């Protein structure tokens, strides 16, 4: 992964990477990526875990774009419980300044990913979330209740 120079990662690579157990971070950091665009199946806890592993392995990450792609249909209704507890990171995303997440609908896994980004990015200035449908009151309330690491 250290030789990847592009700025876009497509979801098929996550299907490959998410087949087995992932480390918390990759053995060597990905120093060439600072503004990746990632397409992801927000219903797949394994793909989200793969993205979290990569986020911890990108020390120069400044901007992040996560784009929802069509669900594989293998989602679990109970998925997302304890997500943040399982994926709490001692390695903050120190360089991340802007995060944009497209296509959210308010599932537990999506909110867990947003919690991870907000809770581990002490210098985050802006986060944009774009829903797949007009936002509901419940989704807006859930987003506003998420604690941030940045002031």
Question: Would you write up a description of this structure?
Answer:
With 151 residues, the protein is α/β, with parallel strands linked by helices. The protein has a domain at 33-135. The chain is 28% helix and 17% strand. It is built from five helices and five strands. The chain has helices spanning 11-17, 45-56, 83-86, 108-119, 137-144, and strands at 8-9, 37-40, 63-68, 98-104, 126-131. Strands 1-2-3-4-5 form a five-stranded parallel sheet. Strand 4 (98-104), helix 4 (108-119) and strand 5 form a beta-alpha-beta unit. Helix 1 packs across helix 2. Mean pLDDT is 76; it is low at 1-6.
What is the N-to-C order of secondary-structure elements (H for helix, E for strand)? EHEHEHEHEH
Major sheet description: 5 strands, parallel
In helices, the fraction of residues equals: 25-40%
Quaternary structure classification? single chain
What is the radius of gyration? 14 Å
Report, as a whole number of angstroms, the end-to-end distance.
33 Å
Strand percent estimate: 15-25%
Strand runs, count: 5
Shape descriptor: globular
Protein structure class: alpha/beta
Sequence stretches where pLDDT stays below 50 over 5 or more residues: 1-6
Give the averaged pLDDT, no decimals. 76
Strand order of the largest sheet: 1-2-3-4-5
Number of helices: 5
Organism: Punica granatum (Pomegranate)
Protein name: FBD domain-containing protein
Domain FBD: 95-127
Pfam family, one: FBD
């Amino acid at each position: 992964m250290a030789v990847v120079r592009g700025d876009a990662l497509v979801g098929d690579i996550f299907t490959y990477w998410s087949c087995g157990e992932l480390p918390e971070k990759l053995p060597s950091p990905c120093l060439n990526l600072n503004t990746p665009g990632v397409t992801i199946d927000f219903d797949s806890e394994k793909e989200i875990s793969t993205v979290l592993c990569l986020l911890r392995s990108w020390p120069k990450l400044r901007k992040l774009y996560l784009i929802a792609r069509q669900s594989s249909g293998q989602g679990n209704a109970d998925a997302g419980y304890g997500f943040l507890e399982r994926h709490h990171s001692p390695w903050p995303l120190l360089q991340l300044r802007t995060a944009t997440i497209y296509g959210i609908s308010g599932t537990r896994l999506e909110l867990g990913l947003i919690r991870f980004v907000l809770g581990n990015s002490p210098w985050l200035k802006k986060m944009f979330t774009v829903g797949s449908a007009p936002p509901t009151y419940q989704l807006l309330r859930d987003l506003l209740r998420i604690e941030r690491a940045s002031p």
